[in-house]
Amino acid sequence: MTRAVTIRGAGVVGLCVASELMARGVAVTLIDPWPEPGEGACSWWAGGMLAPFCEGFTAEEPVVRLGQEAADWWAAQGVAVQRRGSLVVTLDRDRRELDVFARRTKGHRMVSGAELAALEPDLAERHDRALFFDAEAHIDPRAALAHLHRRLREGGARFVEGSDAPDGPVIDCRGLAAQDSLPDLRGVKGEMVVLHTRDVTLRRPVRLLHPRFPLYIVPRGDGIFMLGATQIESAERHRATARSVMELLSAAYALHPAFAEAELMEIGVDARPAFPDNLPRVIRKGDALYVNGLFRHGFLLSPVLAGMAADVVTGRNETPEFWHEDHG
Amino acid sequence: MPVFYETEVTSRLMLGTAQYPSPAILADAFRRSGAGIATVSVRREAGGERAGQAFWEMIRALGVHVLPNTAGCHSVREAVTTAQMARELFETNWIKLEVIGHADTLQPDPFGLVEAARILTDEGFEVFPYCTEDLVLCERLVAAGCRVLMPWGAPIGTGLGLNNIYGLRSLRAHFPDLPLVIDAGLGLPSQAAHAMELGYDAVLLNTAVARAGDPAAMAEGFARALEAGRLAFEADPMEPRDMAAPSTPVFGRAKL
Known about the structure:
The complex is a heterodimer of chains A (328) and B (256). Chain A is α/β, with parallel strands linked by helices and 328 residues long. Chain A has 2 domains: 4-49 and 140-182 and 276-326, FAD/NAD(P)-binding domain (3-Layer(bba) Sandwich), CATH 3.50.50.60; 86-134 and 186-274, D-Amino Acid Oxidase, Chain A, domain 2 (2-Layer Sandwich). Chain A has helices at 12-23, 52-55, 61-67, 70-76, 95-104, 113-119, 121-124, 141-154, 242-255, 298-313, and strands spanning 4-8, 27-32, 49-50, 86-90, 109-112, 129-133, 137-138, 158-161, 170-172, 186-196, 206-209, 215-221, 224-228, 263-274, 281-285, 288-292, 323-325. In chain A, strands 5-6-4-11-12-13-10-14 form an 8-stranded mixed beta sheet, sandwiched between helices. Chain A has a 7-stranded mixed beta sheet with strand order 8-2-1-9-16-15-17, covered by helices on one side. Chain A has a two-stranded antiparallel ribbon with strand order 3-7. In chain A, helix 1 (12-23) runs parallel beside helix 8 (141-154), helix 1 (12-23) packs across helix 10 and helix 4 (70-76) packs across helix 10 (298-313). The radius of gyration of chain A is 20 Å and the shape is globular. Chain A starts with a strand and ends with a strand. The mean pLDDT of chain A is 93. By secondary structure, chain B is α/β, with parallel strands linked by helices. Helices cover 39% and strands 14% of the residues of chain B. Chain B is built from 9 helices and 10 strands. Chain B has a 5-stranded parallel beta sheet with strand order 5-4-3-10-9. A 3-stranded parallel beta sheet of chain B has the order 6-7-8. In chain B, strands 1-2 form a two-stranded antiparallel ribbon. The A-B interface holds A 58-60, 103-104, 185-187, 189, 211-212, 232-236, 274, 276-279 and B 21-25, 27, 44-49, 51-55, 58, 157, 213.
């Protein structure tokens, strides 16, 4: 059995793979130009929603099925998982969008009146109905990355600053940087905003369906709210446009006018790595194993993908779901 | 099949490339429908500094004609600049010209549209203007050099179908030889079939396909409807009449 593995990339995928390998008794070294959790990884900018059922509106079936394992996995690592479900609403003009969303997703029920008011009083003032996905959860992604990092370090994992591939078994979890060896990989730009306000009390993620500016808001506690996220076919990683930020802020304002007075804490931008079907892959190419293409499902699917990669490395399951052989 | 600026296309269906669940599903929609033209937004997708190269490569791999558009432009200058950028990026003189006049309804600004069409035609572009069914506007666009017209059926993304049958019919009658394309507002294949029955040459869709539960199946549904509607148009349909007329004569029927 493989006793030691090098992991390239210390974003959410790399950290999850390292955790799964360490749990199987494999010694891990993580190599990354930015080995500490931070802006170098696109997972730093994630929403942290563990919402497999909502994602099923546009994502394919495996995302819904396998994403359901995420909340338990993160909780088992010791990460604070908020299991309060999530809500989906529309503005009055777009009422029918909610019916379409309900028709194409599972794991929800329509709530209104007193029940909605008990869940989110702020929403009940302005919305007469919402879809409630009670099995969904959310985490603070930055806290989760820091937590995994700390646990790995305590468990003996080494973090090395750098980008060169070393000798020996390698699992490549570099995200978009792996475009140099995975030609199918593309970037999907996302922009996000972090706001601070004491005037909004949302306790669970809320999605606003809008024909032009769909939005989600994830509460991070202490009056911090993350607004996300645009989805643009571009690998550009650094430039947030005024248009995108304006759209996010207008949608948030439409959801609750108190966001107008919120403090603008942060504008974030990065590009998600994705394959053409927007599903992740575990790829054997030459001597390396690649785990990539997590798209907008880094925190939702990394746990399962990490388990699969660790199974391959330790010989438990040589050809898991999402397995690809690349002979190119 | 329709001919746009001396280029004959293989299908009466044009598809937009935004809002699909994934590029793989987008490619499926093209495969199943046989759509011959892909419109691409220059401003946001596949745009600036080649950052959208991967997406653009996927569009190219579809093997269809690419019609870049100026979606999201609200002024003549923006539209002209975007068109120039598109020509460089996509190596084509074709440009679907959008000059948005109203932020909410996204309806075209007819005045800016004519001005931008004139500028771009002078610069050698082959302009596909997104316009309304207003006859006078369309005459001005043709005078500005447009050899294709793309009137809306209804506002972008509404799926309301053909809102002004009279206007669309009279446009067809006034421009019997010009390719006419219904751009925007279609939600169902029956509406596309209706456009064909009116003698329109093609339709352009995006939301109706991309936001369907099964985009590829919906694209195929539209393709079949277009075929049916076009066959009906070419078959010279009967005129509706007020009086019922039995297809089997009553006279001379045996009395049993």
